[in-house]
Design brief:
This protein has 271 residues and is of the alpha/beta class. It has one domain: 3-Layer(aba) Sandwich (Rossmann fold). It has eleven helices and six strands. The longest helix has 25 residues. The N and C termini lie far apart (45 Å). The structure holds nicotinamide-adenine-dinucleotide (NAD). Nicotinamide-adenine-dinucleotide binds next to helix 1, strand 4 and helix 8.
């Protein structure tokens, strides 16, 4: 693998909760590739403490911020720029949570207060994260924002519930801000549509193990791991991807272009 792809770049990485988190792997790979960055998570997640271990390993600091609160995000940018010694080059949005999914409310019986929370935490926060940077002008020209999404935004996966609506919104925000920030500062905004991955957020979805195995068998390359996703994020933060913006990029071992896989059909023939 190429080395030091992110030398001299400064970033902010959200969403590392424990060592299964996709953001955790992204932080480790960014460090390996020569970037400096700060870490952030919701104050409530900080209490779990695991993120301190990551900060130590990466030789950096954590600035808590609730991603739904603009004042928190503005402070996060200012503190990160002060701590890192210059404007930011890349930002990872790795945030998702649905109270409806968590509490077993199906798409046909949503609690609308929780629905608003799902949309705000999982998608609105991406808009807020980008708008705060734009207003403060704290991201360098050529900078790169990446949000993590899932194919349920575009195809129906019934158990994914209202998170599907949030992911559609997230992908739309990448196009909206990709246009505006691209025109004003040549900053790029993309989403990466990742395979099912065994993390706290992932495993919260009903029937996760079954659809993890199903996706694995449907994909010619198998499911993409969190580690491979982190490599893709590094590429998206690097100058190698400098002309890629406003895209939803599938990182799924080929799943999104499959119709049916013989391996799965054979199971029905056997029955
Ligand atoms: N795991 C999967 O199968 C999978 C597949 C595709 C996309 N994704 C997406 O990847 C991203 C990261 O999820 P993960 O799977 O690593 O799980 P995770 O549970 O490790 O990460 C989710 C993070 O969101 C943070 N968060 C929740 N509310 C917040 C708030 N108000 N402010 C700031 N942070 C908040 C949590 O503390 C946690 O760190 C999510 O957007 C998720 O939807 C996951």
């Amino acid at each position: 693998m190429a080395n030091q792809l992110l030398a001299g770049k400064r970033g902010i990485i959200t969403g590392a909760l424990d060592e299964n988190s996709i953001a955790w792997k992204v932080a480790q790979k960014c460090k390996e590739q020569g970037a400096t960055f700060t870490l952030t998570n919701a104050p409530v997640a900080m209490r779990m403490g695991a993120i301190n271990k990551l900060a130590e390993e990466c030789g950096t600091k954590i600035f808590p911020a609730d991603a739904t609160v603009v004042e928190d995000l503005e402070k996060l940018y200012k503190d990160s720029v002060d701590y890192l010694g210059g404007k930011i080059d890349f930002v990872l949005h790795s945030i998702g949570m649905s109270p409806n999914v968590r509490k077993g409310k199906p798409y046909t019986d949503l609690n609308y207060d929780w629905y608003n929370k799902t949309l705000d935490i999982s998608a609105g926060s991406f808009h807020k994260l980008i708008q705060s940077a734009h207003k403060l002008d704290l991201v360098n020209e050529g900078g790169s924002f990446v949000g993590l999404t899932y194919i349920a935004s575009q195809r129906i996966f019934p158990d994914y519930g209202d998170m599907a609506d949030a992911k559609s919104m997230l992908e739309s925000i990448a196009r909206g801000w990709g246009y505006h920030y691209g025109k004003s500062h040549k900053v790029r905004v993309n989403t990466i549509s990742q395979s099912p991955t065994k993390t706290t957020a992932g495993s919260g979805v009903g029937g996760f193990d079954a659809f993890y195995t199903y996706a694995d068998q449907m994909s010619p390359l198998g499911n993409a791991s969190a580690d491979a996703c982190a490599d893709y994020c590094v590429f998206m933060f690097s100058d190698l991807s400098r002309m890629i913006t406003m895209q939803n990029l599938y990182h799924d071992g080929g799943f999104s272009n499959m119709g049916i896989a013989p391996q799965i059909v054979e199971k029905f023939i056997a029955e």
